[in-house]
Amino acid sequence: MKKAKEEGIKEGIEQGIEQGIEQGIEQGKRQQQISIAKSFKNAGIDIKIISENTGLSIEEIKNL
Fold first, then answer.
1. CB neighbours (10 Å) of residue 50?
2. Three-class SS of residue 56?
3. Calpha distance 4→42 (Å, rounded)
4. How far is 17 from 29, CA to CA, in rounded Å?
5. Would you give the DSSP letter of residue 46?
6. How far apart are CA 38 and CA 41, in angstroms?
7. Cα–Cα dist 3/48, whole Å
8. What is the pLDDT of residues 12-57, one digit of tens each?
9. Sign (positive or negative) of CA dihedral 25, 27, 33, 48
10. Which run of H or E residues covers position 26?
Protein backbone atom coordinates (compact mmCIF):
# COMPACT_ATOMS: atom_id res chain seq x y z
CA MET A 1 0.00 0.00 0.00
CA LYS A 2 2.80 2.39 0.91
CA LYS A 3 4.59 1.68 -2.37
CA ALA A 4 1.45 2.47 -4.38
CA LYS A 5 1.09 5.79 -2.56
CA GLU A 6 4.74 6.66 -3.23
CA GLU A 7 4.30 5.78 -6.91
CA GLY A 8 1.20 7.98 -7.07
CA ILE A 9 3.06 10.89 -5.52
CA LYS A 10 5.98 10.39 -7.91
CA GLU A 11 3.62 10.28 -10.89
CA GLY A 12 1.85 13.43 -9.71
CA ILE A 13 5.15 15.28 -9.35
CA GLU A 14 6.24 14.20 -12.84
CA GLN A 15 2.94 15.39 -14.33
CA GLY A 16 3.29 18.71 -12.51
CA ILE A 17 6.79 19.18 -13.87
CA GLU A 18 5.64 18.37 -17.42
CA GLN A 19 2.77 20.86 -17.15
CA GLY A 20 5.12 23.51 -15.82
CA ILE A 21 7.52 22.99 -18.70
CA GLU A 22 4.67 23.18 -21.23
CA GLN A 23 3.39 26.41 -19.68
CA GLY A 24 6.89 27.87 -19.73
CA ILE A 25 7.29 27.03 -23.40
CA GLU A 26 3.92 28.60 -24.23
CA GLN A 27 4.80 31.76 -22.31
CA GLY A 28 8.12 31.94 -24.14
CA LYS A 29 6.39 31.60 -27.51
CA ARG A 30 3.94 34.35 -26.58
CA GLN A 31 6.75 36.67 -25.50
CA GLN A 32 8.50 36.00 -28.80
CA GLN A 33 5.31 36.78 -30.76
CA ILE A 34 4.95 40.06 -28.86
CA SER A 35 8.58 40.97 -29.47
CA ILE A 36 8.29 40.28 -33.19
CA ALA A 37 5.01 42.22 -33.40
CA LYS A 38 6.61 45.24 -31.69
CA SER A 39 9.50 45.17 -34.14
CA PHE A 40 7.17 44.90 -37.13
CA LYS A 41 4.95 47.68 -35.80
CA ASN A 42 7.95 49.95 -35.25
CA ALA A 43 9.06 49.20 -38.82
CA GLY A 44 5.70 50.45 -40.09
CA ILE A 45 4.32 47.11 -41.23
CA ASP A 46 0.53 46.96 -41.50
CA ILE A 47 -1.15 45.69 -38.32
CA LYS A 48 -3.26 43.17 -40.25
CA ILE A 49 -0.12 41.60 -41.72
CA ILE A 50 1.50 41.51 -38.26
CA SER A 51 -1.59 39.81 -36.87
CA GLU A 52 -1.65 37.20 -39.62
CA ASN A 53 2.01 36.35 -39.09
CA THR A 54 2.23 36.38 -35.30
CA GLY A 55 -1.16 35.01 -34.29
CA LEU A 56 -1.80 38.06 -32.10
CA SER A 57 -5.07 39.91 -32.42
CA ILE A 58 -5.24 43.34 -34.03
CA GLU A 59 -6.28 44.79 -30.65
CA GLU A 60 -3.25 43.25 -28.95
CA ILE A 61 -0.97 44.73 -31.56
CA LYS A 62 -2.59 48.17 -31.33
CA ASN A 63 -1.91 48.13 -27.58
CA LEU A 64 1.81 47.42 -27.98
1. 23
2. coil
3. 57
4. 18
5. -
6. 5
7. 57
8. 899 999 999 999 999 999 999 999 999 999 999 999 999 999 999 9
9. positive
10. helix 2-42
